Inverse folding.
């Protein structure tokens, strides 16, 4: 299978479809691998998180050029591999081949377009008919869709941005002073740093660490911690007293996990463990928890709202904040929405949209992004919990005690490096396949 796979990878990399019997074998093998994965796959950093691809094969090649090849780079693709673009088939089959060949190096989760109904309307079905003359390959792929995981949990990501692998003069000269931690960094396709954000420092931290009695204490009168400008007190988690601002989650080395889903949250899902209970091996339903995970969007509202998409929900900052708090998450990473800058952090960086299809539909003019999470080196130290998950809960309450509503959980978000890239140059693309098969004219 490995040899067959390598040949298929080479052929697909050249953007040439593989023969139908090979697709059948590939899909069978892929299903065997995917069936073993839970609804929420555990992935260890370092990992590069990618959003929608939508059949833009040449841009997927550009993504690998910018982000590194499999298996040198670990990847997590958050769905919507197919539809809209001209090369859904080649894009999806290549990713599937890579999954079969390097199952631990690449994670594929399901998007709302990985569905029989949606692909029939938005192009993948027609593409399969055009390229094979029958719906067989489309059917094989749809059977794989039903086995794709619904989410992934990234563990062991570092809180600061590790130095880029290929440090050049430019990078060296822009390294921050030693006492400043880079929280996020934006790079272009050449690896030049476009911008970066330093982690906010909390003046109350050293004072806090000396207190041993209660999480509800007020800071000493001489400790004055201004509210950071993009951090209004009203958005602080479960805090009401103005004086509690200085107790806000301080930056430390222990990280919360990152939940990756295609769309977003669901009013029917309060915990990550609840996602694990879904029977996912089916066509995407029109409503319910599974549907919401693949269809929902964050929005500037309070609570839940109706989605204009007609499936899933809109959810506000309060929903994300509570969900992250209850599940020891530091970040939700999702895709599903075109963002012109390639990525968009919302709600005080508790959720990010990553979009990986540059110049979407070959006309939107947007750039694309991928999100790199580095490892914190603690991977060996994870403790398995009773439910098979990794222990992530680390109290940073001022008294260090577990539980209690006043305890703040240590969820400094991971350092985030975004690589922003443009569409592949025109010269690297073939024209859309126009060669009709015989049946096309019948
Ligand atoms: Mn989508």
């Amino acid at each position: 299978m490995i040899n067959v796979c390598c040949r298929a990878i080479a052929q697909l990399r050249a953007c040439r479809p593989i023969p139908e019997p090979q697709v059948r074998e590939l899909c069978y093998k892929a299903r065997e691998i995917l069936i073993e994965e839970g609804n929420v796959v555990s992935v260890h950093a370092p990992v590069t998180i990618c959003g929608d691809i939508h059949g833009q094969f040449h841009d997927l090649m550009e993504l690998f050029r910018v982000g590194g090849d499999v298996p040198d780079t670990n990847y997590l693709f958050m769905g919507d591999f197919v539809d809209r673009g001209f090369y859904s088939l080649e894009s999806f089959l290549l990713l599937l081949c890579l999954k079969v060949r390097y199952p631990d190096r690449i994670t594929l989760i399901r998007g709302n377009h990985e569905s029989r109904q949606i692909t029939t309307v938005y192009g993948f079905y027609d593409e399969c008919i055009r390229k094979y003359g029958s719906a067989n390959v489309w059917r094989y792929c749809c059977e794989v869709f039903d086995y794709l995981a619904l989410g992934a949990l990234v563990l062991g990501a570092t809180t600061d941005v590790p130095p880029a692998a290929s440090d050049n003069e430019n990078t060296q000269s822009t390294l921050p002073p030693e006492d400043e931690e880079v929280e996020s960094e934006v790079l272009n396709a050449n690896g030049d740093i476009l911008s970066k954000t330093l982690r906010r420092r909390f003046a109350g931290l050293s004072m806090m660490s000396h207190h041993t009695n209660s999480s509800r204490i007020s800071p000493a009168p001489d400790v004055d911690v201004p509210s950071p400008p993009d951090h209004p007190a009203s958005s602080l988690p479960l805090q009401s007293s103005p004086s509690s601002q200085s107790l806000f989650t301080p930056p430390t080395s222990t990280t919360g996990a990152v939940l990756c889903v295609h769309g977003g949250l669901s009013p029917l899902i309060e915990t990550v463990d609840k996602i694990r209970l879904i029977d996912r091996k089916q066509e995407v339903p029109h409503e319910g928890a599974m549907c919401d995970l693949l269809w929902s969007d964050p929005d500037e509202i309070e609570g839940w709202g109706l989605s204009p998409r007609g499936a899933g929900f809109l959810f506000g900052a309060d929903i994300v904040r509570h969900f992250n708090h209850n599940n020891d998450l530091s970040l939700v990473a999702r895709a599903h929405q075109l963002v012109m800058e390639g990525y968009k952090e919302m709600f005080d960086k508790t959720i990010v949209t990553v979009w990986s299809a540059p110049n979407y539909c070959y006309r939107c003019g947007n750039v694309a992004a991928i999100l790199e999470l580095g490892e914190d080196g603690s991977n060996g130290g994870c403790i398995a919990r009773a439910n098979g998950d990794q222990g992530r809960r680390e109290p940073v309450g001022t008294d260090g005690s577990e539980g209690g509503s006043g305890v703040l959980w240590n969820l400094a978000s991971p350092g985030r490096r975004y690589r922003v890239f443009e569409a592949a140059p025109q010269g690297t693309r073939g024209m859309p396949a126009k060669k009709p098969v015989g049946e096309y004219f019948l």
User: Anything to note?
Assistant: The chain is about 25% helix and 15% strand. The radius of gyration is 23 Å.
